[in-house]
Design brief:
By secondary structure, the chain is mostly helical. It has 4 helices and 4 strands; from the N terminus they run ββαααββα. It has a single domain, classed as Arc Repressor Mutant, subunit A (Orthogonal Bundle), CATH 1.10.10. Strand 3 and strand 4 form a beta hairpin. Helix 1 crosses helix 2 and helix 2 crosses helix 3. The N and C termini lie close together (11 Å).
Length: 113
């Protein structure tokens, strides 16, 4: 038996806009320098990845990525400073919640040690 902590953010309309999927996507954008490559690495369609980013940006009220269009020199995506800050806060908050859940789990179910 185990307890699982999932951190999901919802907008004022009750629509999910950020969780582990978008977190992994933004991390992959940071690693690859490309939203398309990040989506591909996750087995996700580029259109879905773009929709996830745009929905999160709309809910947060600031851009998470800066995108440059392709062409002869190629395009790419990078996280904005606000995007990097948001991603770090999300990861830190998620990790703190997971740790708190572990402690509470052991308090309520000590036989599971």
């Amino acid at each position: 038996m185990r307890a699982v902590t999932k951190i999901i953010f919802f907008d004022d309309s009750g629509e999910k806009f950020f969780g582990e999927g978008p977190c992994r996507l933004l991390t992959a954008v940071e690693e690859t320098g490309s939203l398309r490559a990040a989506a591909l690495s996750m087995g996700m369609a580029y259109s879905k990845a773009l929709k996830l980013v745009k929905n999160a940006e709309a809910a947060l009220g600031f851009p998470l990525t800066m995108r440059t269009t392709g062409g002869r020199d190629g395009g790419g995506s990078v996280l904005t400073p606000q995007g990097k800050e948001w991603l770090k806060k999300y990861e830190d908050y998620r990790d703190a919640c997971v740790q708190a859940n572990r402690q509470l789990y052991l308090e309520f179910f000590p036989e599971q040690r």
